[in-house]
Amino acid sequence: MGVTEDLADELAQEAIKYIDATGDEQIISDLVKELGATSQTAEEAFLTSVRVRRANARARQLLAEKVRAYKARKDQSGGG
């Protein structure tokens, strides 16, 4: 990645951690407003990183649920 993407991704990771800890989703809008006021490129990179990271987290959660369900069915059927 380039400098813009690296910095935006780092900020996105910190923002997501903040949201996980506080539940304050407004921080994304606040950061977008601040970034957009000075750099549209940074704003877009940040939003992309947030979306990609959140989508990845949801996909991993879905996969984990599917694996758990599969294992539960397998255990119930006595399969090995």
What features would you describe in this structure?
This protein is an all-alpha fold and 80 residues long. It has one domain (3-75). It is built from 3 helices and no strands. The protein has helices at 3-22, 26-38, 40-77. α1 (3-22) crosses α3 (40-77) and α2 (26-38) runs antiparallel to α3 (40-77). It is elongated and about 60 Å long. The model has no long low-confidence stretch (mean pLDDT 96).
Rg from C-alpha positions?
18 Å
Number of E-state strands: 0
Percent strand: under 5%
- So what's the overall shape? elongated
Which structural class best describes the helix and strand composition? mainly alpha
Proportion in helices: over 70%
Distance between the termini: 44 Å
Q: What keyword list fits this structure?
A:
3 helices; 80 residues
In summary, what is this structure?
This protein has 80 residues and is mostly helical. It has three helices and no strands. The longest helix has 38 residues.
What's the arrangement of secondary structure elements?
Layout: H1 3-22, H2 26-38, H3 40-77
